[in-house]
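Workshop exercise sheet. Pairs work together: one partner reads the sequence aloud, the other fills in the structure field after running the prediction. Swap roles for the next sheet.
Pair: D.N. / O.F.
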Amino acid sequence: MLNIVFFSALVLYFLCSVCQFIASALKKEKFGTIAFAVFLIAFLLHTGYLIARGIIAKRLPMSNQFEFATTFAWGISLLLIILRKKYDAQWITVVAMPAAALILSYAALQPMEIKELMPALRSVWFGFHIGSAAIAYSAFIIAGGASLRYLLLARKNAPDSAAKLNQMDYMSYRLIALGFLFLTITILVGAIWAEQAWSSFWTWDPKEVWALITWIVYAVYLHLHLRKKNQKTLAWFAIIAVPVVLFTFVGVNSLMPGMHSYG
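Structure field:
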């Protein structure tokens, strides 16, 4: 039953992504309305799945690559809902819906069985460390998508696009600032947790190193933004930074086994 809920949410995420693409390509507002309605149903199923899995496992469902990816996709969806409500940014759905679908698809490729929490993960810091990482990654992914939309719109040179371009640039900056804050929390909490678990604040584990590299990359972006660099340059920077996030998330676990290999 649990798997049916998961795959139902996944299928609906793809359906709403297709509907939103049609709405954007053909300028059909009706398809956009349908897409968001389907998306909300998918999000509710997604949320229900995480809650049910947590109840069955008797812990937060974030202990392995499958669970983290599922939480990561949920974070993207949650940010989409918040951004649409706060900024009325309809265009963000074209970015976030496919992102949630793709991350959840990656989760579907991972082992889905519920396992007992490893001793090293049984800590009060567990939820803070992994939850903040999921929020940070979600913010970075949507910021990259918003920057891609910015560059595509900027190429059209439409006379009425200035306000939307400024909104996209502003949103990318705010999302990266949010992600940077939560990634900082992730690293600091991880250091405290590592000292308790392994008697060392920093072990140069591949996941730690790449989390630090990601932090430095986005610190450079924020520095450039404060220096009032060209918006197109910043947009390209935000896009190029996304593969760094994805490598930290997927590549490190696949190619660089370490203390975080279980995550």
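Discussion prompt: The mean pLDDT is 87. What would you look at next?
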